[in-house]
Amino acid sequence: MSFSPNSPSLSGVEPETGSPLEAPAPTEPLIVYRGVGKHFNGRMVLHDINLEITSGETMVILGRSGSGKTVMTSMLVGLNTPDEGAITVAGIDLAHLESDEDWRDLRLKTGYLFQASALYDSMSVGENVAFPMVQQTDWSREKIIGRVRDKLSQVGLEEAINLRPSELSGGMVRRAALARSLALDPKLIIYDEPSAGLDPITGDEISRLMRRLQENLGVTSVVVSHDLRLTEYVADRVALLCEGTIAFLGTFQEFKQASNQEARRFLHRDNQGDSQR
Ligand SMILES: Nc1ncnc2c1ncn2[C@@H]1O[C@H](COP(=O)(O)OP(=O)(O)OP(=O)(O)O)[C@@H](O)[C@H]1O
Ligand SMILES: [Mg+2]
């Protein structure tokens, strides 16, 4: 395997380093959004977002296209910053992290499954999974190769180690991207539309995989999705984002039974088969 590190990666953690994600007591929320607002070119995208996500919890952020889900979750790794309010992760106010160096620990402990998977086409699947380890650690080649195999086996893709992303199906690409975001054993995983564009059976495979990771690794997960089937399978709680603010917060069962107008509208739209692009 040859490695060619050439761009920044946000997709992993390094278990040996001291971590901002290990700070809070179990009962305290790991992530807190307080009055968060965001504007682009004078247009409000997020308004007064208040949300607490507990350590070990899987929170699914639901909402229509353009409702601000990616903007909201990408703030957790500094790809967007709030114009109003504050976000704390493990008690650390993200506004206090300024330089890339300040962000490093947090990003190392965070796996980010991008909406478009973002595999490097010029690298094999194995090299993609190795990339965060090559970038962020001084591990030996043998250790990295061993961990690449381990991560690929966690997502059922051992046989694809030498294939290029262009040789994979959509579901395999998503699983390879997930293996890469697991490369450094994250404490927090952000999944942006993990099942979008996949058929229901492949989507179910991804749901089961996410569930297994939650159960086996005890990670905290923030999942952006339109997919109610996946949501039902993985969510401890759901937050419905509507016109830039949280219109509903509760368990999936509560969501299904909610009298809340936005929740009803979102569920009804899904029943008409309009929820998956
Ligand atoms: N960098 C940016 N500059 C200007 N506008 C932006 C930027 N990023 C996001 N937006 C706008 O913010 C709004 C919310 O975008 P976001 O990507 O968070 O939506 P989303 O809920 O993730 O949608 P989807 O389900 O389609 O992925 C959109 O109207 C988008 O055009
Ligand atoms: Mg999005």
Strand order of the largest sheet: 6-7-8-3-9-10
Distance between the termini: 36 Å
CATH class category name of the domain at 20-118 and 192-271: Alpha Beta
Based on secondary structure, the structural category is alpha/beta
Number of helices: 9
Bound molecules: adenosine-5'-triphosphate, magnesium ion
Residue windows where pLDDT falls under 50 for at least 5 positions = 1-18, 271-277
Strand content: 15-25%
Walk me through what this model shows.
The chain has helices spanning 69-74, 100-108, 125-136, 141-154, 170-181, 200-217, 228-234, 252-257, 261-271; strands at residues 29-40, 43-54, 58-63, 84-89, 92-93, 110-113, 188-192, 220-225, 237-242, 245-250. The radius of gyration is 18 Å and the shape is globular. The protein is of the alpha/beta class and 277 residues long. A six-stranded mixed sheet has the order 6-7-8-3-9-10. Strands 2-1-4-5 form a four-stranded antiparallel sheet, with no helix packed on it. 34% of the residues lie in helices and 23% in strands. The chain has nine helices and ten strands. The longest helix has 18 residues, at 200-217. Helix 3 (125-136) packs parallel to helix 5 and helix 6 runs parallel beside helix 7. The relative contact order is 0.18. It has a domain at 20-118 and 192-271: Rossmann fold, CATH 3.40.50. The model is unreliable at 1-18 and 271-277 (pLDDT under 50). Bound molecules: adenosine-5'-triphosphate and magnesium ion. The site of adenosine-5'-triphosphate has 11 residues, from helix 1.
